[in-house]
Amino acid sequence: MQRTDLERLLSQIEIFRSLTDEELGLIVDISNQRKFYRNTHIFMQDEPMSHVYFVASDKVKIYRNDPTGREQIVNFFQTGEMSRTTGCSGRIHTLRTRLL
């Protein structure tokens, strides 16, 4: 993704909408882009939280497994949405995330 595409994507996300172009540029400067393949877990339950994720394309499923191992879907995130606060308790992920 080109820098201008990343700026456009981030500017559409609610927490960044009020930023100036200069402030948004600073966020882009410290951003890392990663590509995940379908059915890949982005983070797992009980892993330390180390990143904030923004969905650039496709759809991400947020879910947890109950004590019997059954999957419980909590939410979905699509292009332009973020998945930082969902599934975090302090600094540990309480949910799992998988690219669909």
| Separate helix tally | 2
Tally the beta strands: 6
CA gyration radius, whole angstroms? 15 Å
Q: Indicate the proportion of strand residues.
A: 25-35%
The major β-sheet equals: 4 strands, antiparallel
What is the average per-residue confidence, as pLDDT, rounded to a whole number? 82
Distance between the termini: 20 Å
- Estimate the global geometry from the Cα principal axes: elongated
Low-confidence stretches: none
**Percent in helix:** 10-25%
The topology string of helices and strands comes to HHEEEEEE
- Widest sheet, order of strands: 1-6-2-3
What does this structure look like?
The protein has 100 residues and is an alpha+beta fold. The protein is built from 2 helices and 6 strands. The chain has a 4-stranded antiparallel beta sheet, with no helix packed on it. Strands 4-5 form a two-stranded antiparallel ribbon. The radius of gyration is 15 Å and the shape is elongated.
